[in-house]
Amino acid sequence: MIKKFLTHSADETVALGRLIGARLHGGDVIAYRGGLGAGKTTITHGIAQGMGLKDDVSSPTFALVNEYRGKINLYHFDMYRINGGLDLETTGFYDYMDSDSVLAIEWSENISDELPLNVITISISRIDDETREIEINGDERFDDIGN
Amino acid sequence: MTILGIDTSGKTASCAVLRDGVILGQNTVYTKLTHSQVILPFVKRLLEDTNLTLSDIDLVAVADGPGSYTGLRIGISAVKGMCIDGKKCLGVSTLEALATNCIGSKARIFSLLNARPGIVYFGVYDSDGETLTNITPDAVVNAEAVLEAANSYDGDIVLVGDCISNIKEKFFAEDNRIRLAPPHERLQLASSVCLTALAHIDEAISDDELSARYLQITKAEKDLKEKEEK
Question: A98: which chain B residues are within 8 Å (Cβ-Cβ)?
């Protein structure tokens, strides 16, 4: 099931993220697609809020992974510098996969072979400075967003 | 002979002291990602509780793989630190130590640890009631390989490790021949690391020779080959 949305500001992107986050449960893996400045960290900000997490989300580019702890944990990865399975192993990626955690992965293209089958793919395209097209490819949980 | 055993290969952090055939103490907790914060205070407390100091320990044994990437590095680094005085150490297979949990079972033992989705670390050991024999080398396999291994063996099989409920349900739900290790024997225990070390005592090494065995070589070789072909 693929759902498409247009957001017209960072605030709207965060609001969409909040709706997604509220529908997630432990064990979910989100794979982002979209280039630099698309808004992956912005939507993750909303997802964290939707999951009830209080911390501010920042880009994981330098740390590789940022951890946000709550009832369900959120692990926010950036795979920009990761190439293939062996590299991935050294980030401890597989240690983070757990039934009480959500993984949100930027630059998931770099590890596409290693993603689980039931991954939720969120593709973000930049239309202009403020406008984004956001496509959610997941299960029926996201069907009612925007209705 | 006093052996300090440490296991941080999975979600359980565990340390134990074995002296002359007696387990003097063991600390075990299911901690998930915080081994680096847990294991050293754990060892310190265990030594205090057993009235020992680090200099009373003759050998430090550690589960050196397979297992969690960061977990193994934490355990092994801690052991290298404890052996800085020249004390010997010994890395034991995580899967053999797990099988040692069930050493009295007089059955074939399948040690199974979750590696990543659909893939498990798999060790096969036979117990005669007192000792273990390794049947096939520890390996990284698709979960289906466990079913094949069970089908090619006639006797009783005991499953031990963190993913055995899923494996039992998926492949052996109706098969009484395949039993699950009970909860108190199911996950990594440092006391079993100590016993496994005792069975391999002639393999003791110095701390600079100690390193993790990730069992990912096949994968690593595959990646390297792909890289070279590009």
Answer: 32
Closest-CA distance of chain A to residue B106, Å: 33
Identify all chain B residues contacting A94, using CB atoms and an 8 Å cutoff.
68-69, 115-116
Residues near B5 by beta carbon (within 8 Å), at least 6 away in sequence: B14, B15, B16, B17, B18, B60, B61, B62, B190, B191, B192, B193, B194, B197
Its ipTM equals 0.71
Domains detected in chain B: 2-95+188-221 (3.30.420.40), 102-186 (3.30.420.40)
Q: Average of pLDDT values for A24-51?
A: 94
In angstroms, how far is the first alpha carbon of chain A from the final one? 15
Q: What is the pLDDT of residues B165-204, one digit of tens each?
A: 999 999 999 999 999 999 999 999 999 999 999 999 999 9
The answer to whether the CB atoms of B223 and A89 lie below 8 A apart is: no
